[in-house]
Amino acid sequence: ETGVTQTPRHLVMGMTNKKSLKCEQHLGHNAMYWYKQSAKKPLELMFVYNFKEQTENNSVPSRFSPECPNSSHLFLHLHTLQPEDSALYLCASGDKSYEQYFGPGTRLTVT
Amino acid sequence: GESVGLHLPTLSVQEGDNSIINCAYSNSASDYFIWYKQESGKGPQFIIDIRSNMDKRQGQRVTVLLNKTVKHLSLQIAATQPGDSAVYFCAENPPPSGTYKYIFGTGTRLKVLA
Questions:
Q1: Per-residue model confidence as pLDDT tens digits over B31-61
Q2: Dihedral sign, CA of A21, A106, A5, B32?
Q3: What count of other Cβ atoms lies within 10 Å of the Cβ of residue B69?
């Protein structure tokens, strides 16, 4: 256990559905991240939140909408996704010590 | 764009032998590097880190070497065990420092043979 939890662990959704991914960290960190991990590709940074403020949007399509209500929770709202969005979505948290702690990920399949 | 790459996609090692996983990073000004281990069905797990003012750092059974001249990073695992089987990838933190942004490599799969 890394202190970062993600739900659900697996999600199958149609292209017209709306769903949300949830991440929670119990480490007292100030920064939270969303990453996308596709097969045979490097981890792709999507969003960064620092003290609840979004500090990074790495040119992510608007069909992905993040929300950070407080420093412990991070959501990723999904709508009208495409099959190529199928991937493992990882949440991480960190502080100024640079180390990032990852959650187990949500395996998303878009049909 | 900038990227961090790994030389070998798959490495097979006999149990008990030492493993060496390599990584080429792209930004000569990167000041912090991390090695991660990712087991099947799990998120990446921190193994060891090193700052750019160091050439070598040792942990428990693992050693990271940094060669800034050729922008090369390596992870050495001593006496490799079956539990070491996983994907390993490196990450670099390019400037500006403290931005919490990392560039990750694609990963090397380590297979430990009994």
A1: 999 999 999 888 999 999 999 999 999 999 9
A2: negative
A3: 7
